[in-house]
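Let us practice reading a record.
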Amino acid sequence: MKDLLYAVTVVSLICGMVSFLNPSGKHEGLQKQVRFAAALAVCAALAAPLYQLIGQEPPSFSLTFPEVTQSERGEAEHAIITRAIETLCRELERDIASRYDIVHPSLKLTVNEDDPSHVVILSGELYGSGRVREAAQYLALMLQCPITPHAEESPEVSHDSHS
């Protein structure tokens, strides 16, 4: 019984301090969520000694994160960088397609990802048909790296006359 009173008292005091320190803003801020969490904590404090009475271990939870190996971390960083570069390429392709009237632009960027916290774009290649050379110059200025233009010849439209 002593454990039950001690657990409920300590949890209630902690919840009271958190509730007191929680700022109340317009529409009560986080008051409802704090009250709910406090009620859950008090219920858990009430239930924990009861589990000991019936000889079972009380349920618990852990806020620890799983261990991540260096290779898993490297793979995740590589995937994030790859996705970011692909997204950047698609946005730049969309921009230069409208700005320079390029049909089917395709931008390939080469990056140095030795240090995932500082990814550097080393160079790029721009494919498409239209004003590709001008677009490559624009991208080179914007990205501060050399961009090689590869203009594809647009197929000539043939006018066949059938008599």
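A brief commentary: The helical segments are 2-21, 31-53, 70-99, 132-143.
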